[in-house]
Amino acid sequence: MKYLFKKIEPKWQAKWEEAKVFEAKDNSDKPKFYGLVEFPYPSGAGMHVGHIKAYSSLEVISRKRRMEGYNVLFPIGFDAFGLPTENYAVKTGTHPRIITDENIKRFSNQLKKVGFSFDWNRVIDTTDEDYYKWTQWIFLKMFEKGLVFRDRTLVNYCPHCKVVLSNEDSQGGKCDICHSDVVQKSKDVWYLRITQYADKLLEGLKDVDYPDNVKQQQIHWIGKSKGAFVNFDVDGIDEKLEIYTTRPDTLFGVTFMVIAPEHPIIDKYADKITNMDEITAYRNECAKKTEFERTQLVKDKTGVRIQGLEGINPVNGKKIPIYIADYVMMGYGTGAIMAVPAHDQRDYDFAKKFGIDIIEVIKGGDISKEAYTGDGEMVNSDFLNGYAKKKDSIERMLEELEKKGIGKAGVQYKMKDWAFNRQRYWGEPIPLIHCPNCGVVAVPENELPLRLPDVKDFEPGEDGQSPLAKIDSFVNCTCPKCGAAAKRETDTMPQWAGSSWYFLRYTDPHNANALADMDKLKYWMPVDWYNGGMEHVTRHMIYSRFWHHFLYDLGVVNTPEPYAKRSIQGLILGPDGDKMSKSKGNVVDPLDIVEEYGADTLRTYVLFMGDYGAATPWSENSVKGCKKFLDRVAGLTDILSEESVSDELEMKLHRTIKKVSSDIENLKFNTAIASLMTLINEITAEGHLSKNDLTIFIKLLSPFAPHICEEIWEFIGGEGLLAVSEWPKYDEGKTIAKTVEIGVQVNGKVRGTIVIPNGCEKEKAFEIAKADERIASFLEGKNLIKEIYVPNKIVNFVAK
User: Fold this and answer.
1) What φ, ψ does residue 36 adopt, rounded to 5°?
2) Residues whose CB is less than 8 angstroms from the CB of residue 387 and which lie 6 or more positions away in sequence, other chains included
């Protein structure tokens, strides 16, 4: 038969849908498998080849699991709130709802054309009111438990998108959405206290199967450190500056302090500061810089000494200057740091520039040249002198600090609380009310969802206010506690909100009374295997793990961790080896490949192109190679025979079952497909194969190329659908060759090869070797001195 993909593929997609073969059954007696892919943002550009690769790993695993007898949940949905849609709405005057619905429809059709085995009955859309009702409900539960708070702070603001961005969304000083430069702006911000869950997030990593680099990224992101909080008096005033340090043992080396330019002590004691004009000018300069610019390690050191205020080193009583410098941020730690220039390069550079004392307290370097950051014996440190182990000197200093009441042991985290509001329209409304009498009040649960009002103008206000602030009918309301006139919160949630719990909703997507039924959660959760991109292993995964831990503490979910296992796919690069982008003109449209070569070719190629976790360039020639392979597979029906295959081919068939089964589980899809390509060469060389052997072949290939395999299954009279037939099993005994070919040496030189029974006894091996004409000619007329046999490897004769 021929691989007529334009006819075959729509036919089997319709049959799968009609038979509801991919619908998961709640509370089945079968073992369950929950495979999860990162649900897409439905952009106007539609699906790209990166989506195909991202979804193909668990597509293959899910198809294999169904054939292994599992009840499989393999769902899809759409993470549809967000700035790109709103920006497009502003540009075109089309409502985001209309744009989103059109994009979801296009995306769904594209996914179906590729033949993904998603359960389309469980599709979720984060912009659906029935969905975001529960996003708001979770937010209110956090509000009840004190995990939501508001604070005025310097924020990262994108003037182009007119929106406040979290640190995570403005890395490198650029907006994640439009890549414009971000500026600093003072604003009231809603936060989620994710830092309260920092330890649980770290502990939970011990119980999950994530790649080491994923775990390390999360550990680094959370950034837990152990150290001490130490109080420095300010000379002449009743004020203390608290600092945090991981090296309290170096306190005797502190020769200056640095505080953030925004530190409140400056305004409080402005009358004592004699250079306020200089300080004010420096502060104004800092306000123009993003947090990224301010905290760069490699940059010119700038700062201003505060004339009129001096700190006092708490361990030796010495007065030390206090500076302001842009690299110290109020939002990080305490807004003040101690500086030990002899043992920190940034402090060293700063001290050299401003002529500040540098005192060595750890032996081992040459501080006339640079800071010494290694370990060594403590010097110039009073009671610590002579200590050589860092751990011991830190413990001794902590004792002293606590005894004198000037400090205590503590921990800090690099991760900050999550800035959780956006000044845009297309997001979940934050269900809070501002009452002049009661303060901030929650919208009653029975009034959820708090719906987005239908508006025509999505433009954000020039002052950074949400478009919702312009709608009086939305803003003005009554306080649910006291009945007074009140105003609604007009900010919306960030796009990360809906994706922080979507995997739970898949277990029970149509429930109007709970985010999901507990019995269904107990059956399906945790997610058995979650695949996605490396770019989401910190933000999205940490945020969603935080929400899940919170819900577990509430008793709403049944497991502390949402994902048992995580895997990562590599990028598909353009044919030129660069990242695909429209501007470079190197983008490959997957639907073009489906149209020209078929969905099975596309599916096979994206997994054959290279190591699944590595970035790999697109190759049109390799696509054509995969199409030729599938043409050859279709042609196997032409050499069907009643005759059984040779022992050699039977062995290779069983070896291939073993290899493909193992490779799929280890995400070695390229070598699994390669072994099937090798096997088809062996079959072609044999010239025939039985119906049973062809059945095994198409079952192994079907997770990769399901349409052509279903067609062959039907052609050879297979019962039911191949998609739910039984996965092949190998016989270990049949994977072992009955004979082996080994080399024969005479006096250390290979003189020929012989075929012997597998596991042959040495006397028999010698007999077969001597009987070989070519070997016999090298032994003729000589005395055999020694006979050596390495089983299944080599025979060696020593003769004179």
Assistant:
1) -125, 135
2) 249, 377, 378, 381, 393, 396
Residues of the binding site: 582
CA-CA distance, 179 to 597, in Å (whole number)? 36
d(CA 687, CA 395): 77
In this model, does residue 171 exceed pLDDT 90? no
CA dihedral 622, 624, 627, 629 (to 10 degrees): -60
Task: Name the H helices within 355-439.
Answer: 390-404
Give the contacts of 394 (CB within 8 A, at least 6 positions apart).
Answer: 228, 247, 248, 249
> String of b and e for 592-628 (b: at least 16 CB within 10 Å)?
ebbeebbbbbbbbbbbbbbebeeebbbeeeebeebbe
CATH of residue 755 = 3.10.20.590
- Cα 153 to the chain's mean position, in Å? 29
Can you tell me the mean pLDDT for 190-205? 97
Which of 547, 573, 599 is the last residue in one of the domains? Answer: 573
3-state SS, one letter per residue, for 45-64 = CCCCHHHHHHHHHHHHHHHH
Measured between its terminal Cα atoms, the distance across the chain in Å is 63
- List the beta bridge partners of residue 337: 258
Q: Which of 573, 597, 612 is the last residue of a domain?
A: 573
Q: What would the two tokens of residue 134 be? A: 């529960």
DSSP string covering 399-421, please?
HHHHHHTSEEEEEEESS--EE--
Strand partners, 71: 32
Find the radius of gyration of the CA atoms of the chain: 34
Mean pLDDT of the chain: 94
CA gap 44, 216 in Å, rounded: 35
Q: So what's the pLDDT on residue 620?
A: 94
Q: Which of 21, 23, 25, 24 is nearest to 13 (CA)?
A: 21
Asked if 526 and 400 sit in the same domain, the reply is: no
Running DSSP on this structure, what letter comes out for residue 174?
A: B
- Rounded CA gap, 314 and 86, in Å? 54
d(CA 58, CA 65): 10
Residue 98 has a CB neighbour count (10 Å cut-off) of 11
566-568 vs 71-73, strand pairing mode: unpaired
Task: Answer yes or no: is pLDDT of 163 > 90.
Answer: no
DSSP 175: -
Taking the C-alpha atoms of residue 373 and residue 344, their distance in angstroms, rounded to an integer, is 6
Question: Which H or E element spans position 265?
Answer: helix 264-268
Is residue 581 within 8 A of residue 100, CB to CB? The reply is no
User: Does residue 194 fall inside a structural domain?
Assistant: no
Q: How confident is the model at residue 89 (pLDDT cuts 50, 70, 90)?
A: confident
Mean pLDDT of 67-89: 93
Domain that holds residue 747: 737-799
Q: Is 235 among the domain residues? A: yes
Region class of 335: left (phi > 0), else alpha (psi between -120 and 50), else beta? left
Q: What is the DSSP string of 631-655?
A: HHHHGGGGGB-SSPPPHHHHHHHHH
HSE of 43 in the Cβ direction (CA atoms, 13 Å)?
10
Nearest CA to 631 out of 668, 670, 664, 604 is that of: 604
Nearest to 774 by CA among 800, 756, 750: 750
Known binding-site positions for ATP? 582
CATH number, domain with residue 112 = 3.40.50.620
Q: β-pairing, 572-573 with 749-757?
A: unpaired
Contacts of 197 (CB under 8 A, 6+ apart): 546, 549, 550
What is the pLDDT averaged over residues 12-22? 98
What is the separation of C-alpha 331 from the centre of its chain, rounded to a whole number of angstroms?
A: 26
Tokens coding 583: 């501007």
Task: Tell me how far the alpha carbon of residue 397 is from its chain's centroid.
Answer: 40
Contact 396, 387 (CB under 8 A): yes
Residue 31 · residue 733 · CB < 8 Å: no
Q: Using pLDDT thresholds of 50, 70 and 90, give the confidence band for residue 177.
A: confident
* Segment (H or E) for 796: strand 794-799
